[in-house]
Amino acid sequence: MISSKKHLLSFVTPERAAEMMSDGFPVIFPTETFFGLGSRALDVNATAAVFRAKHRSTVKPLPLILGNWEHLDLVAKISSEIMPFLEKFWPGPLSVIFPARLRVPDILTGGTGRVAVRLSSHPVARQLASLIGEPITASSANISGRPAVTRAEDLDSELCAAVRGIVDVPPSPSGGAPSTLIEYEGDMRFTLLRKGAVAVADLEQAGCEILFPAS
Fold first, then answer.
1. What angle do CA 51, 41, 101 make, to 5 degrees?
2. 161-202: pLDDT as tens digits
């Protein structure tokens, strides 16, 4: 039996969600870990709407999900040496911070000039970005400070009221640890900024050096 709360949510297909995002509206969609809240990455106004919906400070950057490998070059400056490493973990829950291209709005980088990206292993998240033709923002679908969720019926009603639509099609988010977050320092060296679904040992086994920030 569908709960009364879930009955009131505005569910849409991935195709309709992509149309909404193309028109500048944020939507909620599943990722491999939790439900995400996203917009077109290069649309400043849509990105601002994500910050407002989450009550998130604009000094905190928003991570991006790529629809395909070609999207990486749209938003990040990378060197060819890193591609074999990325291919070992993408698609998957590994977010990597790179220097951002000039076209990336400052609101996405929090003024840092750097952007966090990943090629998601969730087919719907990738489909949305592919249909739009550019990366999408992918913050967790929750009001800042509140828990991330794996079920649509657990989404915050205040957040749902601030978006145009919700995609809830299989596979469901698996929960668990968030994506691992690392920052590329050059020469196959990365700083670990958040432990997550990809273990540090697996990263090191792939041929990189993991640095730990000073406490």
1. 120
2. 999 899 999 999 999 988 999 999 999 999 999 999 999 999
Instruction: Using DSSP, state whether 37 is helix, strand or coil.
Output: strand
Helix (H, G, I), strand (E, B) or coil at 212: coil
Laid out side by side, the sheet with 35-38 consists of 139-140, 35-38, 27-30, 165-166
Give residue for tokens 């009131």: 8
> Which positions ≥6 away from 167 have C-beta within 8 Å?
11, 12, 13, 14, 17, 27, 28, 29, 30, 124, 128
The conformation of residue 57, written as its DSSP 8-state character, comes to -
pTM (predicted TM-score): 0.90
Question: If you write DSSP's letter for every residue of 106-141 in order, what string do you get?
Answer: HHHHTTSSEEEEEE-S-HHHHHHHHHHTS-EE-EES
Report the run of H or E that residue 4 belongs to, with start and end.
helix 4-8
pLDDT tens for each residue of 30-86: 999 999 999 999 999 999 999 999 998 888 888 999 999 999 999 999 988 999 999
Q: What angle do CA 80, 65, 158 make, to 5 degrees?
A: 160
Q: How far is CA 199 from CA 181, 206, 213, in A?
A: 11, 11, 17
- What is the C-alpha to C-alpha distance for residues 120 and 134, in angstroms, rounded to an integer? 14
Non-local CB neighbours of 88 within 8 Å, separated by 6+ positions: 206
Q: What is the sign of the dihedral through the CA atoms of 203, 119, 39 and 54?
A: negative
